[in-house]
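Standup, Tuesday
Yesterday: got the pipeline producing structure tokens again.
Today: sanity-check two examples.
Blockers: none.

Example 1:
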Amino acid sequence: MRTVDLIQRKRDGLELSREEIEFLINGFTNGDIPDYQMSAWAMAVFYRGMNARETADLTMAMARSGDQMDLSAIPGVKVDKHSTGGVGDTTTIVLGPLVAALGVPVAKMSGRGLGHTGGTIDKLEAIQGFTVERTREQFVRQVSDIGVAVISQSGNITPADKKLYALRDVTATVDSIPLIASSIMSKKIASGADRIVLDVKTGSGAFMKTLDESIHLAQAMVDIGEQVGRETVAVITNMDEPLGLAIGNALEIREAVDTLRGEGPADLEALCIQFAAYMTVLGGQAASFEEAKDRAEQAIRDGSAIAKLKQFIHAQGGNASIVDDPAHLPSAPYIVEVPSESDGYIKAMDAESLGITAMMLGAGRATKEDVIDMAVGVLLKKKVGDPVQAGEALLELHMNRDEKVFVQEMSDRARQAITVSQERAERTPLIQAVVTKQGVQRF
């Protein structure tokens, strides 16, 4: 089998067999196939695509390229949730304790943030003492004992995906549905999930900017799940404005605590209840979606969800007192309000721009080497559709620097990300579509 022949076959729009795809992935991972040939193959896929069977075979070849988590020792059906990335996306930190409180084990491997999207691991490390480094035995034992654990991704999980993604990033082949879908799903499968729930973001703050693009990606991932025996549900959610009010690590932890108390932003709570319901049904702990929603709402009301959060933080070495006293979280010394320049209504928010503003304050990384400031970020005071008066705060900047030029630059940037209109704007529905093996339901 020759690599050049497989490049040519895909260039000409022909199918590759499972054996041919495994030959490519194994050879590239082992260093037998050079970058320039894999780049040519990725570009051929970019233009010619892959069918559902090919994409599933690519996914499994990448999942098998390194370590695979064996979660069979954990009782029950393990349901994983993945987000394609957004701004203020605190759902994993809420969902882990909430779903565990409903009897579904949550064994989660998460990543760090890069650019304008935050990472769950970074956010959790805003809690003093919290550690994401666990042996596999400790990880499995913790989930078996308390129902939830979150660790950082192993260095040898899907090494083929890491190598291929780095190549795609510098060869303009990132925007390929089969390559994106197989990248995401290979990590979920290698992480040991029995069932998978996907949060596919769409809008200005998301990777996929349009609903049709997002549905296309969701369908590809659901198809992979079905092909490899992992039931998968994908929910398309709005990212035209940040989720919740907080953008920044400690700010988002505080917001997650509020949400588990039933005191969080309405959109974040609604989305978490929705995802908790899907995870509970897939985990076999509820007979219907409505029953699962009711149980999730009850777990927030009766305090079992917030109690599970305390247990989770304590189990991973963190200072669980932050749940009752947020003063134990990092806080920025300077808080600057950015006021509206006119009366009206919030018409639109550029979620990506607000995420970049938080990153520039120090809440995120422009490069992998950057050090995150856990205390800083953006706290919204308004959402799309809300009325506002001239001089009223649109948001707060939580800062560790008070130089006049820097404060002015950040304030101007944040203000420009929010559009105020004389006419009340309709809010985009939070959930825009659900994709399952039965098809697409749009809302």
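Example 2:
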Amino acid sequence: MSHKLKIAGWISVGALAGALTTVSLQTVARGQLAPLPLEELQQLAAVFSMVKTDYVEPVDEKKLIQDAIAGMVASLDPHSQYFDKKSFKEFREGTTGRFVGVGIEISQEDGLVKVVSPIEGSPAYRAGLKPGDLITKIDDSAVKGLSLSEAVKKMRGEPNTKVMLTIYRKDENRSFPVTITREEIRTQSVKGKVVEPGYAWLRLSQFQERTVDDFAAKIQEIYKQEPNLKGLVLDLRNDPGGLLDAAVAVSAAFLPENVTVVSTNGQLPESKFIYKAAPEFYQRRAGSDPLRRLPAGIKNVPLVVLVNEGSASASEIVAGALQDHGRAKILGSQTFGKGSVQTVRPLGPDTGLKLTTARYYTPTGKSIQAKGIVPDVLVDETEEGNVFAVLRTREADLEKHLQSGQGPEVKDPNREKAREEARKKAEEEAKKGPNDRKFPEFGSDKDFQLVQALNQLKGRPVLVSKTQVVEDKSAKKDN
């Protein structure tokens, strides 16, 4: 690649993962500093001195400076961030898909942590935790009242340390403690299977360092089981994004060689770049192209991509590239609208700065910042409709979000009213038993959107949404 960019990224964890996900480019810090506003810096120094000498009790100087930096960066947009030692470590764990913990995928239910699935081979898996188990205590801390991210932090820790989880197992109507030794966990970002003869489903939950290798291996596995594949559903629902090179590689697997996948544009010369469907734009090691192993049929197999409001950043790059090149039909709901690029620069051995440095654009030049990808076919989450979609936070809902750069935004006056109605429905849904709730597991035979995607591939009628409205936040201009 002509300019010396090392591609990196971040994957956030928690209920608002889609809202805080970035696609990142890591560059060498610029050699020349911008001119400094001396008068304002003197005011900053004066305030620091007054706080240090006059505040009611002694203050930590280092914390004061760190908070000042964090506040300055946080005032820019929702994705720029100062990393202290702890958050920088968590950031780097996110890009690798590795962390130290017990190894469970979790959600929340009735204020408790629910085990969605233990990761195969993990300490939690070996300890016998099952899907549906509820965690009521982590060590001596009650889970009720904790946010999902707070619970995650309590379960993570250093390798070979122990954590005691108190489990309530509904089907056995009993509670019991389980002591688990933490170890390094490698998350699995790729799932897939042949769902019926001739048709397969492939889900990407994040774009991490291992995603492309795992993606290539899963495609090979599918073709080995079903050599005459007639159609493939690429599932990017609730995929918060991650590494840019992984998004370019997944797009390149389906596209003709050397076509444009995504472009970026910002103030820095190195932020003005076009990424193409070729190995030099995604391979991490010279001569190592994981896509070489893919069957030739993957370039032409009929393809449907599933997206929703939780599909963000790298997911939107893939969906936008495949849509603009006419390679796939995009089906589902309008995506999150995270169309900005963050550069991560170290400030020292264990601190760093994540700064928004560019917008990214689909191959036809569309900015999806605060807009998102609009599906070719709008399909609801369930047969009853998109019950709770309006409750989900999108990029345009975030304070201080970057605008698209392609026209001013227009607010929807009916959105808050729709949210209130959805909140009432959510409360009613929460009172139901697990078997009566509307949202089955992605990839199951009761997955409504997957069924519609298969209908699309087979040329059968698709149950198109009657309620979804495309949110175009930019004002229309007269031609």
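Quick observation on example 2: Residues 98-186 form a domain with the Pdz3 Domain fold (CATH 2.30.42.10). The chain has a mean pLDDT of 83.
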